[in-house]
Design goal:
disordered C terminus; 4-stranded mixed sheet; two-stranded antiparallel sheet; 2 helices; 23% helix; alpha+beta; 60s Ribosomal Protein L30, Chain: A
Length: 142
């Protein structure tokens, strides 16, 4: 069931991202950037947003990487209050069971996730308040 409140959806994003990170052999300690997109953002929503992060911090070991929160008018679907784009740097090679690269993305819109890599492998994953994880294929594009 999808949470209808901002705090619940923020916590769900962390759960979804945790699955994507785990699939690539990474943790939240590998995350170097967390960008949030929040529908109809108002300053009065800050406490609910923070409550979602606090809820997730009780479930996961969450260091605090650089965070940006961007208010938007609407997101992909009605009822989706928040989504995030997360980038992690992996300094070790990671092999997924199906032979894919160690880049994992998530999408609700049936789009192929983006593939990013550099000298260090990057894990780029995005999640919405009700997203499921799915590994990307080499060469996939949004």
């Amino acid at each position: 069931m999808v949470a209808k409140d901002l705090a619940g959806q923020v916590a769900q994003v962390y759960r979804t991202v945790a699955k994507g990170l785990a699939a690539a052999g990474a943790t939240f300690h590998d995350v170097v950037r967390f960008t949030w997109y929040i529908a109809k953002w108002e300053r009065s929503m800050y406490d609910d947003f923070s409550a979602g992060i606090e809820q997730a911090s009780r479930e996961f070991d969450l260091p605090r990487p650089p965070l940006a929160a961007i208010g938007v008018d609407v997101l992909f679907e009605d009822g989706i209050l928040v989504e995030a784009e997360v980038t992690a740097v992996l300094d070790r090679p990671v092999a997924l069971p199906d032979g894919n690269w160690a880049v994992v993305g998530t999408s609700l819109a049936n789009r192929a996730p983006s593939l990013e890599h550099s000298r260090n492998r990057l894990l780029n994953t995005s999640a919405r308040g009700n997203t499921h994880t799915r590994p990307s294929r080499p060469g996939s594009k949004i």
